[in-house]
Each structure stands twice: as structure tokens, then as C-alpha cells.
Amino acid sequence: MMLNKQVVIIGAGPAGLACAEMLSELGDYDITIYEQKPSAARKFLMAGKTGLNISHAEDVEVFISRYDHAEWLRPMIETFNAQEIQAWMKGLGIESYVGSSGRIFPNEMKAAPLLRAWLKRLHDRGVKFRYRHQVVAIQHQGLTVLDLVQGQQHQIQTDAMVLACGALSWPQLGSDGKWQNWLNSSTLQPFIASNVGVLVNWSSYLQPIFGQPLKRIRAWVHGQTPQFGEMVISHYGLEGGLVYRCNRDLRKAMQTQHSAVLYLDLLPDLSFEQILQKLQHGKKQSLNTLWQKIGLDKTKIALIRDVVDKADWNEVQKMAHHMKQLAIQIHGFRPIEEAISCAGGIRLNALDQHLMLKNSLYLFACGEMLDWDAPTGGYLLTACLATGRAAGAGVDQVFQQGIKLRN
Ligand SMILES: Cc1cc2nc3c(=O)[nH]c(=O)nc-3n(C[C@H](O)[C@H](O)[C@H](O)COP(=O)(O)OP(=O)(O)OC[C@H]3O[C@@H](n4cnc5c(N)ncnc54)[C@H](O)[C@@H]3O)c2cc1C
């Protein structure tokens, strides 16, 4: 059916672009994307700076279990899963590979070539881009757009609108969260930082190893399953994928107290007994030499010296225990502006199966502004792409069902 409807998408991040792409596949839609920044997908490009981890090659059940609100996301992720994402990239001329940890990257690692090819496809399909245009308000049948170059406001009419404005982290890249003022507060779950660094009070002794990685370790919060990976010691505490994966458990632990303990197994390849034996046999050597021989590198040794009471250093039983279960006192999180992603946003029960807001006909939403959460590892972008495409399909389905926006 030829519909010729106007659809406005607010935000040219991965979710908004995926929505536009889906709509351009489904019908003769007049699609305009309003983006307040001078160019598209700045956070996506930033994500590519250290290697664009766009998805994860693992069993789909395991994949889905990584998310909060996994069952809600399931149909969308199953429709646009890791394999689909690799095929989609290939269709754009971007080959990808699966790393040893299962994470999927474009061969070139960067996001820019993928974004260029993607934008070209959207342009070729007639999608219109209005950069430096900030949406300042939405109404029942339209929106108010501020042209940031001319300094003028315009009223725009549209048949449907898709919010793809992102969450709150890295606001300098565009996701400033101002859209929250447009919606009834009852539809919003307050944002909190997810995948963010944690605060530890280090002594000045640790300064020389700030920025150094703790490699091949396990980390956990009391009562939770240890996770394997690495993290980085920074001047304010700890950063990196492994500490992000412990964020949720740390937050829960902190709900009852003002601090929480993160346990680190610095030698996951050795048992407590093996470490104990090695410590007992090497008693005549200097501590540094002995600890290095056991397998601790300079960063791990510095960390032990900082965290463990000096009185324990020559107590082999106690040291074997510290090496397997080093207790780090965490007393907070870095600000949401520094987080890789946010939890919270539009409550899922405020949306229908088409990702349309239940109380606003023809207003849809997708991407990180929705209240799902996931660790890093490609899960964030996968959900942004999958919900973006689902919102595009949702717009089409609602139009096909013939619900009238304008009376
Ligand atoms: C440093 C960093 C590294 C990351 N690395 C990875 C990674 O490797 N893998 C992964 O899966 N995820 C990664 N992420 C997360 C991922 O980039 C985000 O989850 C994703 O970009 C969110 O997509 P989105 O389209 O929902 O929102 P965004 O990418 O935030 O896009 C929203 C867009 O909406 C625009 N906008 C907002 N309000 C308005 C308005 N009023 N008017 C007009 N335009 C507006 C913004 O300018 C922005 O361009 C990383 C994030 C960061 C910060």
C-alpha cells in the first residue's frame, strides 16, 4: 500500500538511523531526521575510537540473558541479532570479525567507514537530514524545531514522530536528556549511570601505576558469580569492562550501605593451595621477587601493597587469601556524564508492542532512551539497532492498521 506519510525522527544516532533505514525499506515514507549536532552519530563514532564492538557472537539465549528486561527485548533482538548485524554490515561493504572473546568488530575497527556507507544508503533512499536543528518541544500533531544556525524556531507538522534522542551520558556528543521534559514524569524511570567507573580511595603510593591495566583477573561482589576480564587503575578508582560488569551488583550492595566491597582474584589460574605452597617455598626471597615468580605483575604487586595491611605481607596464609580475594572498598560511582551508557528512561510499560507511547498516538521511541540496560560487549549497540528497526516497523504497522492521527 502506498502511504506517502511524513515521519520525523529526532536524533541521528544509531537508533534513529536504524529506524529511518527500516522505514525506507518498508514503504514510501517521507522521512526527515532532525539532529542538533552538526553531523550524525557522534557517540557511535566515539565508540569506534577504541574499536567498534557492535555485537557479540554467542548463543542467542545467552546473548538475550545479558539484558535487564530481557524478555521485553527478546523479539527485537531475535529479529536483528548478531548474525543479522554482520550481514547488514557486509551489505554496506564492511567486513567484520569475531574476536577471541566473541565480540564482533568491523575489520577496520573504526565506526567512520560504516557510518559513511550507512548515511550514503539513507541519502540515496531519500531520507532527509536536518543537522544543527534542535527539537525544543513536541505537540500532538507536530514539533517545534530551533534552527541553531539561523536562531529561528519553526513549527513542523508530521504524521508520526520517533524519539531517538539517546540517554544522558557524554552530553557533549548530543544526548542531553532534555527530551525528558516533553513526557509525563510517570512514563520515566530516572536515569542512572551504567557501565561507569567506580571510586576508591587510593594512597599516593599508587600514583605511578595510574592508567595501568589489571589483566586476567576475576572480580565479584559478595554472593555473586565471579566475572573474568580486566580493568584499569585510575587516579579516582577503577575503570573498564570488568568493573562495568560488576556495576549492578555494586549498586545493589550500596543501596543498604554507603560503600561496597569488590573482591578481586589476582591469580585466577592458581588455587589457594598452589599459591600457599609457592609462598611457603620462597620465603628466603624478597617479597617482590617472590610475588613476581608466583605470577603477579608490577601493577598487581603495587595494588596489593596499597590495599593490604603491611603486617600481613609476610603471613603466607593471609597473603594467599589476599591474592585470591583482595577486598577493595568502593565508595561511589563516577558521574553519569562519564558513563558508557545509562539505565532508566522511558518505562517499557508506557510503550505498546509497536514502540508507540500508549498515551500519545503516533509518538514512538527507540534506542538508549528506553529503560533497558546491558553490560558493554556489543549489547548496547545491538539493542539500539534492534529497537530502532522495531520502531520503524512499528510506525509502518500502525499506519497499515489505519489509525488516524489527524481528525
Ligand atoms: C565512549 C563510548 C564508547 C562506547 N562503546 C560502545 C561499544 O563499543 N559498543 C556498544 O555496543 N556500545 C558502545 N557505547 C554505547 C553506544 O554508543 C550507545 O548506546 C548508542 O550510541 C546509543 O544510541 P542512540 O541512538 O540511542 O543514542 P545516541 O547515540 O546518544 O544518539 C542520540 C542523538 O539524538 C540527538 N538529539 C538528542 N536530543 C535532540 C534534540 N532535542 N533535537 C535534535 N537532536 C537531538 C543527539 O544529538 C544524538 O546525536 C559507547 C558509548 C560511549 C560513550
Summed up, what is this model?
The chain is α+β, with helices and mostly antiparallel strands and 407 residues long. The protein has helices at residues 14-26, 42-47, 60-65, 70-79, 82-91, 112-124, 241-245, 247-256, 272-281, 287-294, 298-307, 316-324, 379-401; strands at residues 6-10, 30-34, 55-56, 96-98, 103-106, 128-130, 133-139, 142-147, 152-157, 160-163, 188-194, 198-199, 213-221, 227-233, 237-239, 260-265, 326-330, 332-333, 341-346, 363-365. Flavin-adenine dinucleotide binds at residues 10-16, 34-37, 42-44, 46-47, 52-53, 134-135, 164-166, 169-170, 174-175, 178-179, 340-341, 367-368, 378, 380-381, 384.
Bound molecules: flavin-adenine dinucleotide
Provide the β-strand percentage band: 15-25%
CATH C-level class of the largest domain is Alpha Beta
CATH superfamily of the largest domain: FAD/NAD(P)-binding domain
Order of strands in the sheet with the most strands? Answer: 17-16-13-14-15-12-18
Structural class: alpha+beta
Number of structurally distinct domains:
2
* Main beta-sheet annotation: 7 strands, antiparallel
Q: Which term fits the overall shape?
A: elongated
Q: What is the percent of helical residues?
A: 25-40%
The number of helical elements comes to 13
- Strand runs, count: 20
Overall pLDDT level:
95
Classify the oligomer.
single chain
